[in-house]
Amino acid sequence: MVDPRLLRNMHFFADLNDEELEVVAKIMHKEEFKRGQTIFTETEDGESLYLIRKGEVKACKIAPDGELFTLMVMKDGDIFGEMSFLDGRPRSATVVALSDLEVFMMERKDFEKIVDTHPWIVYKLLKNIVYTIHAIVRGMNTRYMDMLNYMWGRKRGY
Q1: CATH for 4-155?
Q2: Where in the chain are the domains?
Q3: Count of C-beta atoms within a 10 Å radius of residue 7
Q4: How far is it, in rounded angstroms, from Cα 3 to Cα 94?
Q5: What is the Cα 63 distance to its own chain's centre?
Q6: Alpha carbon 153 to chain centroid distance?
Q7: Along the 158 residues of the chain, how does pLDDT read in single tens digits?
Q8: Which DSSP symbol is given to 26?
């Protein structure tokens, strides 16, 4: 269990009231990782959602030569692991700590236990996860269009 007062200051939980934070705090626990430590690897099974309290991580894809290609960097208040948390499929990326790291972690099985008893909390948390995924997709779309514009402009001799 995590102290609910620690969750109060995190943007991800901003729309939860004190009673709702108490419920969520009971299904979360704290984990710590050292700089350079791998939290999980691409294709690994996992159903945990991580919320960064302190530190930074990078999400990476493994290149054919085994090198890690960084997709994005996440910092205090960001979440990761949300895709496997929601769909139960293997991890889509490798996540590595860029600094000493403190995270709050929620297991899918524990989250599912509150679906019947606290559906409004589940709704609020899922809404925040969807907002996070939406922001990631929007950022990817912007980078993709920038890349296309760069390539198209270059081919046209601009």
Answers
A1: 2.60.120.10
A2: 4-155
A3: 21
A4: 29
A5: 21
A6: 35
A7: 899 999 998 999 999 999 999 999 999 999 999 999 999 999 999 999 999 999 999 999 988 888 888 988 999 999 999 999 999 999 999 999 999 999 999 999 999 999 999 999 999 999 999 988 877 777 777 777 887 887 777 655 54
A8: H
